[in-house]
């Protein structure tokens, strides 16, 4: 899934506002944004009103009913009822209540329908005419001006997606020729279209990353888990950077990844770095160094595991390379892993007892408690996307402007539906 401003058809159902903070001087493909903007200036995404009215009906704004068309109703932030063409008393008197705990209620709890007064008593947002089965609260869980877009669906495994500042996504998923393709292929989502980048029916292609000029790096896992080769697609050419897995690429087309020396019991692994010309070892101390992330300054963050205690006795350190020195990051928690580093050199990581962030000087708790925050991803504007365990499922949450808000909205108790944060960019888009 992808939270994004609509770039395509003007008929998209959205409460999109054309004013959105833009990325800081990001060079995008020519067929992406027509121009760039500084972090303090808005850029404008064309989203014209349709030349003719769309479906006409009743628009519920709270319990108030307005006769208008579908487009105008969504622009007002209302809930549209196409089966009702005229407003009558009571049309919007019952509906759904969206509460701050991400729940949706359409009854008052004692056998009656949900109404605006009951919802207000529960500190919720009332949607007249809505029913919870349709999940009307989904667009109240995301920042104003954004919508949830389905990028790739189906009963196949999807890797964590990565995104650039031009709104492009890459991820691994099963190829189109399912009968002959045993593993994943690399896919690119670009402005509403989806394209398969790799076509290797014998070997999985997984864990891709993309930079703002469209260069893609991924793992060609020919030799088994964690022991494949790292590929780079740049200027229309695919090259092999070396053995390893899980590459991270920056806008200089520099790439960091890890490679195992051997497998059980210690799983020693080293961090590799490609500077655009040659590949070299960045760090190797005999421990299991995994999951590097690189920023635009060529700083690299990763997890160093000590597996000498066996499967249940492992420990870990969060590591950072700043161009000359490797530092063990301070932490008040244990079993920390999956660090992320942004271009301000701020970092975030997940631990057994919560999650922590480093602002360049001090470490502080972002979330507290087991499973309260996993897979932190930071943009350069103070926003953090992460996954949180709620009601037996993983859900995507956003830390923004000093507060927390839920993003994903899959609460299907009949199916195991987990949502895991994969990427956030400086435009404010989130992929999971």
Distance between the termini: 5 Å
- Number of helical stretches of at least 4 residues: 2
The assigned structural class equals mainly beta
Question: Which stretches of 5+ consecutive residues score pLDDT under 50?
Answer: 6-48
Rounded Rg: 23 Å
The count of strands amounts to: 36
Across the major sheet, the strand order is: 10-1-36-35
- Mean of all residue-level pLDDT scores: 83
> How would you describe the shape?
globular
Major beta-sheet overview: 4 strands, antiparallel
Strand fraction equals: 35-45%
Share of helix, binned: under 10%
Structure description:
It is built from two helices and 36 strands. About 10% of the residues have low confidence. It is globular. The N and C termini lie close together (5 Å). A four-stranded antiparallel beta sheet has the order 10-1-36-35, with no helix packed on it. The protein has a four-stranded antiparallel beta sheet with strand order 11-12-13-14, with no helix packed on it. The longest helix is centred in the N-terminal third of the chain and has 7 residues. It has 432 residues and is mostly beta strands. A hairpin with a 4-residue loop joins strand 29 and strand 30.
